[in-house]
Amino acid sequence: MNCFATTPLSPDTWPFDLDELPSDACLVGGAVRDALLDRRSDHLDLDFILPNRAIEIARAVSVCHAAGFVVLDQAREIARVVFPSATVDFALQEGCSLEADLQRRDFTVNAIAYDPRTSTFIDPLDGRADLKRKHLRMISAENLQDDPLRLLRAYRQAAQLGFEIDAETRSAIRQLAPELSRVAAERVCAELGYVLASPRGTIWLQRAIADGLLRQHLPSATPDRVANLVAIDHAVEEIRDRDPALYATIATPLRPTIATTLITIVKLVSMVSGDREVAEQELKALKFSKLEWRSVLDLQAALGATRDTAAVRSLSVRELFFWFKGLGDTFPAWCVAAIASGVDWGAIAPLLAMFRTPGHLIAHPLPFVDGKKLVAALDLPRGPIIGELLTELAIARAEGTVCTEGEAIELARRLIG
Question: Less Cβ around it within 10 Å: N or C end of the chain?
């Protein structure tokens, strides 16, 4: 019996038939590696190497199954077919043979091919031995230099796989670290996001920073500053045990189109400059979305007034009003950062209760007086003053100094004059 019968190595698990591929097509890359490690995923991610007609065959497969099709690289002949539960890439073999193609890859564990027709492995670089040792070993420093994103990818894959980076490989990465500046910011940002999201990512992110990998992109991410990432991980664990609903919120992507979670937002605060303008430029340069960089900056500002338990408990109603307004939906991230900073849960819990209460007078104030009524009652022109008055009336209501619409209008009259 084939021991790989229920893994991506088995054509029975594919969304298309083996007969649709030429006889010399081989499966390569992460799917082979993960099958050998018995790592499973609900979504298949397959990569095939073909000696010719890669795009043509990919297109034929997509047409046959009414699947999505896109050419990723016309010059290198790489195409992707997208099924509901699988993504399949077809690439033209680089070099005169499959072995030559494998020699051009990043790490030995990713340079193992599998022939599905003969159920045999092609492993010229002894990647299976490195899998057993749980080592990430480069094929050559030149290969890393050819695509410097591979330098950062080493730390990401070490985190994801629970591997160690081979000493010679890590030494080469340190020497080549400045080369990462040649890589498009979007690619660096995506790779960084994978490391930040990995359960084992903290130690490898700290090592990447210690090895100088992000010096050009995040100069404020010094080893001393990112030491706080460990405390953030512990805070996340505490929230998971103490308040599963809050954990679900901080672990959920900000939007379906943005994989970043509030946990990542908290960690990014420890990696950017403490100066708001500089931090904004750092995040924009890395091509973080507006939602992401605004969330980081909002959290950064909120933390300035709540670094310890005493500061949290001393906030007045007015201060809390503006504090909640500044945080908005980023508040759950503040809970993580606060715990990581040593703020007592007893000081966090009341604020969390406010945040969870719809229409709360401090955390989610609803309009108390209609702006049109203020304009009519006080004979005021429309303009910024109306918004300022409405804010003051909302604060007065939260403080309990006004309780009716009439009292609110009278207070507004006194405020203007």
Answer: N
